[in-house]
């Protein structure tokens, strides 16, 4: 048991991690679980039995195994997991026309190029939606720097879109987005206490916020690019297009890209991760580690820990990241 305690202390396994429904193996990310189950043609030799069972009864979108499910119910489950693409609105909606629904908003920006070689990203289009995918704000944005590359092949943005009357200033866009996010809360108060401020969902949020010259408290951000279960490795992110195809079941960012599609994809990923049923749930309210020992398994409890079962250790362990299921 001493080696098990040391392993739990180093690995920080918890009930919030993705887990194989067949052998109950813990994985640090869904990408690792996909490899373990052989989804996408990548099968680890030691997981061949899991891969065979998953191929017969598993869902390649949610990575769940439906034990005892018939062909009809399995097909219905797979169809329900695979979402469809939502077309962007035809007209710009520069003013929010509905009350935001839910506690989170999604932000998406499209960049054009500035600088001598057009490699400097500047925001030229912004979109904000709520949890029900209602557009609260959408506008073309006039960058502060001269645009040297419109990247029309992917953005669909032309010079006339950024002229006076057809677009808003960066300051105006920033003010609108902040109004929606803070929902009447004072900015200084939102930095330490959420109050009425809303969670901000997106992919590469720091990049988008920087382009809008904005800042937002880290504890209110829900970034699909840096959420550990959705990352490729501990330091490498997956693209939003990859995540949408593999965990929502449809393609985005084909042809002219619209920030609305990015917002919808990020929000759907967030809601799917938030809806994960993790077991055991006891660790959701586990006390924080003692100040003098930041490890979840302090050395002064070594003897007690060695007498615990693996499931007891799992209930005691806490993840080293904020699991989005705790937002529910």
From TrEMBL:
- Here the segments flagged for biased composition (Low complexity) are 285-296
Q: Where is the Exonuclease domain?
A: 103-279
**What species is this protein from?**
Zea mays (Maize)
Print the keywords alphabetically: Exonuclease, Hydrolase, Nuclease, Nucleus
Location, primary (coarse class)? nucleus
Keyword Nuclease among record annotations:
yes
Q: What is the lineage of its organism?
A: Eukaryota, Viridiplantae, Streptophyta, Embryophyta, Tracheophyta
Family statement drawn from the similarity comment of this UniProt entry: Belongs to the REXO4 family.
Matching Gene3D superfamilies, A to Z? Answer: Ribonuclease H-like superfamily/Ribonuclease H
Q: Where is this region: Disordered?
A: 274-297
Q: Which CDD domains match?
A: REX4_like
Checking InterPro entries in the record gives:
REX4_DEDDh_dom, REXO1/3/4-like, Ribonucl_H, RNaseH-like_sf, RNaseH_sf
Q: Which SMART domains has this protein been placed in?
A: EXOIII
Mitochondrion found in the keyword field: no
Superkingdom, natural source = Eukaryota
Q: Name one GO biological process term.
A: rRNA processing
Q: State one molecular function term (GO).
A: nucleic acid binding
In the UniProt record, which is one GO cellular component term?
Answer: nucleus
| Parts forming coiled coils | none
Q: Give the subcellular location.
A: Nucleus
**What name does the UniProt record give this protein?**
RNA exonuclease 4
